[in-house]
């Protein structure tokens, strides 16, 4: 991929500072990454698998925290969101407060160097964070490798990893996460047709830690 500002912390700090101001002005939580259907897809899959509501869930790069809010509304009780942008966590705290979801845990954390407090999750969810890391102008390959190591560190053996991506195909993601993870399922996503070829604009996969 070509390097992009979307892969830099400065971009996301500025973006979430703007969204924080907007929320304070008009109560709008801002953009839902990949749209609402991406959240519905994740929650439906968890419910179909009868994943216990008290399972520990980590939202990697939580942004405005709206996915965690929807999980809480669906009955999940052990929810944590992290983001390396302090503005994102400030925003998600305000959204949490507005929705009255005080049991959701939020913290400023760089997933590429997770603190000792993070390990032990049964489910990790990524909606666009791995994409952003892949666009970092500074050593994106090394950062992707570190992401996989961090995921292994925070996710319990046999834990589930749900990833939604607009930059990577199924085959590419299976290759990226080949060290320590096996694919369980590809979730259905909208298809498009271009030049007679059918493809997916978004890839959504479920992995299990070995």
TrEMBL record:
CC annotations in GO: cytoplasm
SUPFAM superfamilies (UniProt xref): S-adenosyl-L-methionine-dependent methyltransferases
Pfam families in the record: Methyltransf_31
Catalytic activity annotation: L-lysyl-[protein] + 3 S-adenosyl-L-methionine = N(6),N(6),N(6)-trimethyl-L-lysyl-[protein] + 3 S-adenosyl-L-homocysteine + 3 H(+)
CDD domains assigned to the protein according to its UniProt record, in alphabetical order: AdoMet_MTases
KW Transferase (keyword) present: yes
Top-level taxon of origin: Eukaryota
Keywords from the UniProt entry: Cytoplasm, Methyltransferase, Nucleus, S-adenosyl-L-methionine, Transferase
Protein name listed in UniProt: EFMT2 methyltransferase
Source organism (scientific name): Heliornis fulica (sungrebe)
Lineage: Eukaryota, Metazoa, Chordata, Craniata, Vertebrata
